Amino acid sequence: MIEDKVEVIAYSGYRGEEIPKAIVLHNERIVVVEILDSWLEEGVDDRVRKRFFKVKGNDGSLHEIYYGEKEMEWFYKGAGKP
Q1: Listed residue (40, 51, 49, 39) closest to 70, CA to CA
Q2: Phi and psi dihedrals of 10, rounded to 5?
Q3: Is the whole model's pTM more than 0.70, yes or no?
Q4: Less Cβ crowding at N or C end of the chain, within 10 Å?
Q5: How buried is residue 57: exposed, middle or buried, by Cβ count under 10 Å (0-12/13-18/19+)?
């Protein structure tokens, strides 16, 4: 599955790690009302890190996004109902 690049409005915490506050998806701004889970994955061969977030949006859906540290961009993995 190919993930789509997505615009994420984020807050950088005191350690510089970005926390998603809103997702702009198909020209619609979805506010993150709750971060349900977050985790870090690192490639075995290339050691490239991705920071994943599963969030609940104000649209009532669950969204999974990640920040690719190599690309320095956000990607959208998908949505689902809670």
Answers
A1: 49
A2: -130, 160
A3: yes
A4: N
A5: buried
Amino acid identity, residue 40?
A: L
The residue count for the chain: 82
DSSP letters for 13-44 = -TTS-EEEEEEEETTEEEEEEEEEEEEEEE-T
Torsion of CA 68, 23, 61, 71, to 10 degrees: -10
C-beta separation of 50 from 68 below 8 A: yes
Residue range 3-55, pLDDT digits in tens: 789 999 998 766 656 889 999 988 999 999 999 999 999 988 888 899 999 99
Where residue 82 falls among pLDDT bands split at 50, 70, 90? Answer: low
